[in-house]
Amino acid sequence: MTYTVDPVTHEARGEYRNLTSGGTFILRGTQLPRPGGAATLTATVDPGDTPRLNASLLGFGVSNVPLRASGLLSATVTDTILGGTLTVGGVKHTLILRAER
Questions:
Q1: Phi-psi region of 64 (alpha: psi -120 to 50; beta: other; left: phi over 0)
Q2: pLDDT tens digits, residue range 37-77?
Q3: What is the pTM of this model?
Q4: How far apart (Å, rounded) are the C-alpha atoms in residues 17 and 71?
Q5: What are the Cα distances from residue 87, in Å, to 3, 40, 55?
Q6: Region for 79 from its dihedrals, namely left if φ exceeds 0, alpha if ψ lies in -120 to 50, beta otherwise
Q7: Going by DSSP bridges, is the β-strand pair 71-77/81-88 parallel, antiparallel, or unpaired?
Q8: Closest listed residue to residue 90, CA positions, set 75, 74, 77, 72
Q9: Less crowded by CB within 10 Å, the N or C end of the chain?
């Protein structure tokens, strides 16, 4: 995950890359400072322009359904660790990332 934060508006923008599937997602949200130097990041993780499913069978069908799901990232950010949860389709996944510089 790579993102930047606007110091005035606290807007976070960047990308989240799933190394397992190779998918790249757009990250948008806010990162608000907390006492003690930590911050709280809340962001949506959206597939952006992804292939979409259009299919029908016997008159019933689906149209324009993305093949990748969006998610919600809620995390605490310290100097070197981002830890929190990524919720996709109602399922929460624990997420712990270490900063690389």
A1: left
A2: 899 999 998 877 666 667 777 777 777 666 667 789 999 99
A3: 0.76
A4: 13
A5: 19, 16, 27
A6: alpha
A7: antiparallel
A8: 72
A9: C
